[in-house]
Structures are given as C-alpha cells and as structure tokens.
Amino acid sequence: MAMNENEVNAFHWLADMLESVEVGLVVLDLEFRVQAWNGFMENHSGITASRIRDQILFDVFPDIPEAWLTRKVDAVAMLNTRAFTSWEQRPYLFKFRNTRPITGTEEYMFQNLTISPLSGTTGNVEKVCLMVYDVTDIASSKRALERANEQLAKLSMTDRLTGLKNRGTWENLVDAEYERYRRYGHATSLVMFDIDRFKKVNDTYGHLAGDEVIKHTAGMTLNNLRQSDSAGRYGGEEFGIILPETDAEGAKIICERIREGIEQSVVDTTAGPIQYTISMGIAQLTDVPENHMQWMQQADEALYAAKKSGRNRVMVFDA
C-alpha cells in the first residue's frame, strides 16, 4: 500500500532525527550483520552506513568483546527485554577517539550502552538495536574526582617535605606489625634514628639548608630499604623504620649501609656543601613489650645509647 503525503513526511522527519541525534544507533540481525548505522556512528567511526551494511560487526570491529556481546544479545532476544551496561562496568563498546574539547584529557570516548529487542510482524525478536551514549563528560569528571580524593588520601598519610609516611600513619604501621608478631611470631625489628647535631646545621646554614639535609636523609633511607620495609618521619630530624622478617643482625646490616652512605655523602645547598652523620637504634621485637609503644621505647633507648657512645653509630637494644 502506497504511503500518503503525511506518512511520507513523518517517515522523512523520523529518518532525519535518527541521523542527527547525538546517540549512536546500530541495528543488528541475530547473526550480528549490520542493518542500520546512523550519523553518530558514521562521524565517530569514519565508516559510512552503505559501506558497513550487511557486514558482520565483529569483522569490522575486532576489538569488540565478541563473547560478552553475544551473551548480552542472546539474553535480550530470548527474554524480549532490554539490557544495559555503563561505562563503569565496561568503559566502551566501540573504541572511538574522544573528540570533546572540554574533556580532551581522555583518550577514548566513554560509553553507556542499551540493547533493545526489535520484534517482527510475527512478534518474534528478529533484530536488536544498540544505543550508544557518549558519557565522556560524566566519566571524566568522576575519574578526576576519584584521582583528587586519592591524592588527598595520600597527602593525609605523607610527610610533605620528605614524601615518607607521616608520624600518625607510621605509628599505625608499627602497631600493625606488633600485632602481626603477636599472631605469627616472625622476627621483626624497629629502627629509630636522627640526624646528629641537627640544631647546629640549622644555626650554621639556615633552615632551608636544614630541610635539604632532612630530604637527603629520607632519600638515602629509601634507597637502601626493601619493598616490604616502611620508613616514616617521626618528627623534626627524627625518623623510624619498620623491618619485617628481619632480626637484629639483619637490621644492623641495613642500618650500617644507610649510616655509611650518609657519612660519605655531601649535600649541596645554596648555603654551601654540608656533611653530616646520623645515629641509629634497633630493637628486635620480643614477647617483653606489652604494646607497640613499649617496642618504640626500646628502639629509642638504643638510639640514646648510640648518641651517648659518641654518635654516628648503630646500637642494638640490650634488655
């Protein structure tokens, strides 16, 4: 039956709307051959509708997860109901470059996807429609917020000058290591150390130079630690190290390496070159301390003994 003029106009308007809408529309038969491909898809893929028509989608876009999309489409066709997926579950179905000037930091377009069943005259599902929504702005904003929150969390745990863990965070790790020893009994050692005669460094060279010495101490410490070790700035010129799975002798080897490295180095500052030393105290954990604070006190007593013995040395706590 021929369409009248109103029907022709309505069809034309509908076709024009589908071509210009800012949503990707893809119609597939149940063998995944492309039946319709609107202007949004042409613009972002660079593939015209006439070129892709009747081609199998996975042949044209091999990056599309075939098994995943097949499961989705089969469920839509079987249940005759829509299926949805968001960019948080799968960042994109079609790997389109991001063309938004505002969210240019994102390399690819983030997409939400709706899969709708399309029934024929018999009422059976014969095709499916993929609706692809560009949600790059939303995704980019959320990802930026998550990165900012991660950075804030990191800053709240980190000493700003040295990049080491701050006192509160490091003390919590000492407490956790103490509890781990109570449960498993593995050897573990704690180190407290500070910069010898640091007040003289500040008085002679100034506080900015003193900060350079503190940063140098942190860098030398990190360079000589293992991945499992944890270093923190306890306050001022005082530092701490947790050495898991390490007895006092092993801890002393690590500490001597740090001490000798610092003794033999020179810190170049705007106020002039500075040479300095550190003193270190070690306490291997035993069943004697009743809490982590008593363990820290033992390491601090060993540090005091190193100072009293002439500085620039490593001492192990002796009960």
From TrEMBL:
One of its GO terms (molecular function) is diguanylate cyclase activity. InterPro entries: Diguanylate_Cyclase, GGDEF_dom, Nucleotide_cyclase, PAS-like_dom_sf, PAS_4, Rev_trsase/Diguanyl_cyclase. Coiled coil: none annotated. CDD domains: GGDEF. Gene3D superfamilies: 3.30.70.270, PAS domain. Residues 186-319 form the GGDEF domain. It catalyses: 2 GTP = 3',3'-c-di-GMP + 2 diphosphate. Its cofactor is Mg(2+). Keywords: Kinase, Transferase. Its EC number is 2.7.7.65. Transmembrane segments: none annotated. It comes from the Bacteria. Pfam families: GGDEF, PAS_4. PANTHER family: DIGUANYLATE CYCLASE DGCM-RELATED, REGULATORY COMPONENTS OF SENSORY TRANSDUCTION SYSTEM. This is diguanylate cyclase. The lineage of its organism: Bacteria, Pseudomonadati, Pseudomonadota, Gammaproteobacteria, Pseudomonadales.
